[in-house]
Amino acid sequence: MSESRVMKGIEFARTGEDGSRVLLLDVYLPAGGATPDAHNRPAVVHFHGGGWRVGERSSLGPVADGFGLSPFEVLTEAGFVVISADYRLSAEAHFPAQLHDAQAAVQWLRNHAEEYAVDPARIYAWGDSAGGHLASLVGLVPSRDGEENDVAAVAAWYPPTDLIHMGEQARPNAVARASDPGSREELLVGAVLAANPDKAAAASPISYVTPDAPPFLLVHGTADRFVPAAQSQALATELEKAGADVELLLIDGADHMWSLADGSPAAAEKAFAATVAFFRKQAALP
To answer: pLDDT, tens digit, for every residue of 15-38?
Structure first.
């Protein structure tokens, strides 16, 4: 694998009433970096998981990280610029703050596209779990400056997509349910979901599906005990109904973060290979 260039801790936004909250991102550039003779490259903006409560940029979660897939390096090797961005967690701010931060990260990349040799028409979003939720919203919710879509395609791993029905879809052996008091989802919106369906709907990617949706890749384990696979299935169904381009990959027996009973990385490898292939296809890379 050729050596990529990594720039960490770049400020992309300031939030809060006094603008004192700084949000940071990391930039991963293909070997050679951004040079004057570089062709415009496709880019992937990644959002981390962690139930909107915890997590760090540049992480795919403790289990998936342990498999050593080097996802950002693999993408830069394929010719992508990769951005991994912070967003405010639910203890600091309720939804839609997280979406606004995610949109700000994409807008930062657009504003710096020439500097990093990025093609603005080939910017994609990717996220896992809570990050998959945000990536899906970035793809479906018009940006605040009125553009149709912020990104040209979305890949989401086991994303929450429909907070209204998420609790009832939980597996019998679920570790967490959206309908539990003080659930991750309730902490996100700052309210009891059942008593506030308007807030639950506003934070649900499935609410924003239109025929203008970008292409989607949804990847989910059938044994997910945190986010039921029905969440990805439901979003895929709505995207198909709208006439959008969507691929749904269900990985049999895989739990959240691609945990398998035998402890092998097989599910994570399959999910990541499908994700790289999806982005390469969208970017028209050989």
So the answer is: 987 888 999 999 999 986 555 556
- Tell me: the pLDDT tens digits for 150-201? 899 999 999 999 999 999 999 999 998 999 999 999 999 999 999 999 999 9
Integer Cα distance of 126 and 134 in angstroms: 9
Q: Which of 196, 190, 131 is nearest to 160 (CA)?
A: 131
SS3 for 183-223 is CHHHHHHCCCCCCCHHHHHHCCHHHHCCCCCCCEEEEEECC
Give dist(CA 25, CA 133) in Å, integer: 18
| Best CATH choice for the domain 5-282 from the list 3.30.9.10, 1.10.357.10, 3.90.1720.10, 3.40.50.1820 | 3.40.50.1820
User: Which amino acid, 185?
Assistant: E
User: What is the edge-to-edge ordering of all strands in the sheet holding 118-128?
Assistant: 5-15, 21-29, 81-85, 41-47, 118-128, 154-157, 216-221, 246-251
Distant-in-sequence, close-in-space partners of 146: CB < 8 Å, separation ≥ 6: none
| Residue type present at position 160 | P
